[in-house]
Amino acid sequence: MSDATVTAATIRPEEAAHFGKLARDWWDPKGSSAMLHRLNPVRLAFIRETIDSAWGGDTESLRPLAGKRALDVGCGAGLLCEPLVRLGAEVTGVDAAEENIAVARAHAEGAGLTIDYRAGELGSLGMGRFDLVTAMEVIEHVSDKPAFLAELARHLAPGGLLIFSTPNRTPQSRLLMVGLAEAAGLVPKGTHDWNDFVTPGELGELLAGAGLAIGEPRGIAFSPTKGLHLSGDLALSYIVTARHA
Questions:
Q1: Is the pTM value of this prediction over 0.85?
Q2: What are the pLDDT digits (tens) for 229-242?
Q3: Residue 31, domain CATH
Q4: Residue 106 parent element (H or E)
């Protein structure tokens, strides 16, 4: 599972090429990104819960991000960007793969949504700071993790919120996310290198190095009855916030 590419300075070129090849069927819920379609509602539930708590907004509002700027880094073809617009944000999506950005722009236009999509290196785009920065299923694909996190911190406004989701490096994630998921075709082969997965403790240390404080992680677990869901079990994957320390 991945919302894939980040910046030319931190992403491996083969990663950008891998995810660029998947661009055309990114929005097909039964295609190569099917797992992301299943994961997206879980991530959005966490985002909604978190922004309501962090910013004390109206929990009944349909547009809790109205007046906020949001940046999705490693946005792929826009699977998270579009719901963020519908939640009221002014959204920018960045990805290293030109193919992904082309598909994202076309899909947003077809949906009548205004999203500022950019292809290239985050640090060279001159976009300023954002109230909400998301990097979903991305850091495990980044070669220089401290540099990546420093760039995210630089784009986070004072009082802003950074949200990550990423697989944990555990025996369970090796078996399910790399072994079984890729073998069964649920995730494209070659998507994950288990050795690049980051534990919550490691992420906390990396974030501290970027001047950010990590929140309490929530697990993203799977069961036959619930599917993917938020959980106290961090063994497979987790989602977490960070803010300026």
A1: yes
A2: 999 999 999 999 99
A3: 3.40.50.150
A4: helix 98-110
